[in-house]
Amino acid sequence: MRLDREITCAQVVDLVTAYLEDVLDADDRERVEEHLVFCDGCSTYLDQIRQTIAVTGRLEPEDIPPALQDKLLAAFREWSPA
Amino acid sequence: MTAYKFLGDGSVSPFAGFRWPVGEWVEAAAADPCRRGIHACRVQDVPFWLGHGLWEIELDGEIVVYQRKIVAPRGRLVRRLTDWNRELLEEFGAGVLARTRTRFGAVAVLSGYVGDIQNHLASGRVPLAAFAAARAAELSGGPAEYERERLRQAAWLADRLGLGTA
Ligand SMILES: [Zn+2]
User: Fold this and answer.
1) What is the extent of the structural domain holding A63?
2) Where exactly are the structural domains of chain B?
3) How many A-B residue pairs are in contact by the CB < 8 A criterion?
4) pLDDT of B111-132, one tens digit each?
5) Could you give the CA distance from residue B28 to residue B148 in angstroms, rounded to a whole number?
6) For position A38, which CATH number holds?
7) B143 — contact with chain A (CB < 8 Å)?
8) Which residues does residue B58 pair with via DSSP β-bridges, in sequence order?
9) ipTM for the complex?
């Protein structure tokens, strides 16, 4: 069971580029930010993407380290009773 | 109106990265585009945005209400609520744990959340503990219970910090 407005780590990962490009609507933006408050994995991920953009000036799919995605999804599962 | 805002070190906003001056009106270009308005919490929003420093902010102009926040065209930081510190955050977390244990510690499907919350608190992740408590409540009785647990958290914070009394 999941709240209507609740998003998963995987969804945050999907939305990260749109979030950083400021093209999410206000509700989705709020959902992403609400998640970032309590999810260390996604916060770390976002920081990493920001740093990548700062260094390379762009973000391409191959810039996203898959190992980091796996790590944050594992961190999320760690506490989930599912 | 009076509202609240969590800011990082140096009164920098956690998402926009804006360094807030104290006591000066800050104008946003418009309230509607989420990122360009001044974001703040009503009392009931506070548990969703737990952060480093908590400030009282005065908002002015037309206020747009979202589910977990409000957005205004103008805002002015009034004062930092110095009672909000690591100790109070931990006390808040302990209360969340105690309530979850009392309510669900003996409920087979939900008792696992008590251990989860304990682990989150042990690693300093109080916002995650508060979220997990609300999820346990939700599993017990649906989405309204999620909101109710968040309101209990807000009520505790309001009581300890004197929120909503200005
Ligand atoms: Zn996450």
Assistant:
1) 9-78
2) 2-80, 86-161
3) 51
4) 999 999 999 999 999 999 999 9
5) 33
6) 1.10.10
7) yes
8) B2, B76
9) 0.84
